[in-house]
């Protein structure tokens, strides 16, 4: 900016009152009355930049020009951090299609999504070519890096512009994804469509490390599920067998409907294991397309994956995470998630069955889903021979399950080691005001109090309090030969206790600003 001067209009002559004109001398400056351009900057949209400031010291005799180079900070909340787009600095004429370059331009720009730069040949890496930066350097996978195979990259098809599948989407390292898209099929091409064959998804080995072709990991088949025409699924015992599409009884069978990859990696960013699970189906001659689903997940070796229910706040419809405080707390200070009948560490309630028989419903549990008020129940039939104490314990096990948790996670992503992120469950008991030697539990009511936490723009659901109330009733001794039935119920209620903002008071400052339509030009 010190060499820029927008008021320098005359060649090899001093422009009047142009304090940045390099043709002006000290004698010329002494005759100036003001600086027509007091400050010279570059792009005003930059967050921080150098500015050349010009002024006149009229108190001096004769008057003198004062020049300063300062750091100017843009007060706007919308600013450009750095101008790293090289094409912005100059205009390059677009390449016009000719018979000679048409194929090259079509390859570069002929897809639904493309880059302005030519596509690198890194996907088709040559094993004999070393990386120019350092041939001896060990390359580790980093988050988001495409998972490379011996010939290209691990494909995770997804829709791009329309719902049709595009196979050009690489799977990113440590990026869990789930996609669905539509694939064109026909009976005539049953065995020739690569994208509906198991071999298409497991025929390439994965590079254990980036750009290193010495160690490769084969993709093994973990499970194969066959889906019938009516939607019923059956797990095959011989999952190792490769099942290729073929025509049988006017059906094209072994069509890939879904693929689920599971990648195991080390903390050094090295892939050590890869497995794929398949869902296979069949199409008839009327079918023109199928819907395929694809999924990929990553697990670090020697760790147990724990499903989350939000990040950080709970998401409506996902299970509430629960666990126990281990013996000897705070040594170690880490929560222990449930691992018996509930392997994922979830808060559960009694699950209703078609028979409505409480004794037949033992062990059937349903997870408590955040934001969903739920109720379930069954009918208990007792006789004169029923004993109070065993019945009481049976009903408690029925209502609470084998291991009712002590704590629930306040956030959907609360970690087991963060004990303060877990909320203790408060247990209450209510009973009839009747003196009786036998009180049996007949209902469990769970109330979950939650609040909106964080910014008003993107509030996160946080659990603050959980109360489990057991209600009991009196069991009178029945005459011989008589029977009685009791309804046994479990329920869950979610209560939002968020405090509304006071009238005329804004808890958080808000920004009401509109960007110019060309603010980010030429950036996309």
TrEMBL record:
All residue ranges annotated as the Tectonic-1-3 domain in the record: 140-301, 310-494
Keywords of the record: Cilium biogenesis/degradation, Glycoprotein, Signal
Short name of any one Pfam family annotated for the protein: DUF1619_N
Signal peptide (residue range): 1-16
Domain of life of the source: Eukaryota
GO cellular-component term (any): MKS complex
Subunit structure: Part of the tectonic-like complex (also named B9 complex).
Protein name, per record: TECT1 protein
Organism (species): Centropus unirufus
């Amino acid at each position: 900016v010190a060499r820029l001067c927008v008021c320098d209009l005359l060649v090899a002559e001093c422009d009047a009152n142009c304090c940045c004109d390099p043709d002006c001398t000290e004698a010329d400056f002494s005759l100036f009355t003001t600086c027509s351009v007091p400050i010279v900057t570059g792009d005003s949209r930059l967050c921080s930049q150098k500015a050349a400031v010009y002024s006149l010291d009229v108190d001096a005799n004769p008057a003198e020009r004062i020049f300063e180079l300062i750091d100017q900070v843009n007060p706007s909340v919308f600013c450009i951090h750095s101008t790293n787009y090289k094409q912005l600095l100059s205009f390059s004429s677009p390449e016009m299609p000719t018979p000679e370059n048409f194929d090259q331009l079509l390859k570069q720009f002929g897809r639904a999504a493309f880059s302005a730069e030519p596509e690198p040949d890194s996907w088709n890496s040559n094993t004999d070519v070393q990386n120019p930066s350092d041939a001896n350097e060990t390359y580790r996978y980093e988050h988001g890096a495409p998972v490379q195979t011996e010939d290209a990259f691990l494909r995770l098809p997804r829709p791009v512009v329309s719902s049709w599948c595009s196979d050009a989407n690489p799977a990113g390292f440590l990026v869990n994804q789930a996609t669905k898209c539509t694939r064109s099929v026909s009976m005539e091409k049953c065995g020739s469509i690569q994208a509906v064959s198991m071999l298409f998804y497991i025929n390439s080995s994965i590079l254990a490390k980036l750009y290193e072709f010495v160690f490769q990991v084969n993709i093994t088949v973990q499970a194969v599920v066959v889906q019938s025409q009516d939607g019923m699924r059956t797990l095959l015992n011989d999952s190792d067998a490769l099942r290729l599409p073929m025509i049988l009884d006017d059906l094209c069978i072994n069509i890939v409907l879904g693929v689920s990859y599971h990648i195991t990696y080390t903390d050094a960013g090295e892939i050590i294991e890869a497995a794929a699970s398949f869902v296979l189906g069949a199409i008839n001659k009327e079918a023109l397309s199928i819907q395929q689903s694809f999924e990929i997940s990553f697990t670090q070796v020697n760790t147990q994956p724990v499903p989350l229910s939000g990040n950080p706040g709970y998401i409506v419809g996902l299970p509430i995470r629960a666990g126990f405080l281990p013996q000897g707390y705070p040594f170690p200070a880490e929560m222990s998630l449930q691992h018996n009948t509930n392997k994922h560490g979830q808060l559960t309630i009694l699950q209703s069955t078609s028979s409505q028989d409480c004794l037949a419903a033992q062990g059937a549990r349903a997870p408590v889903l955040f934001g969903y008020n739920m109720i379930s129940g069954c009918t208990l039939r007792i006789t004169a021979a029923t004993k109070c104490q065993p019945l009481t314990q049976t009903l408690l096990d029925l209502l609470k399950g084998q291991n009712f948790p002590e704590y629930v996670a306040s956030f959907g992503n609360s970690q087991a080691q963060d004990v303060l992120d877990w909320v203790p469950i408060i247990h209450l008991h209510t009973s009839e005001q009747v003196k009786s030697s036998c009180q049996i539990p007949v209902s469990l009511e769970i109330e979950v109090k939650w609040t909106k936490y964080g910014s008003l723009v993107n509030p996160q659901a946080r659990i603050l309090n959980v109360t489990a109330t057991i209600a009991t009733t009196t069991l009178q001794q029945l005459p011989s030969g008589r029977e009685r039935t009791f309804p046994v119920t479990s329920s869950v209620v979610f209560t939002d206790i968020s405090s509304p903002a006071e009238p005329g008071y804004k808890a958080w400052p808000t920004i009401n600003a509109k960007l110019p339509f060309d603010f980010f030009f030429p950036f996309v």
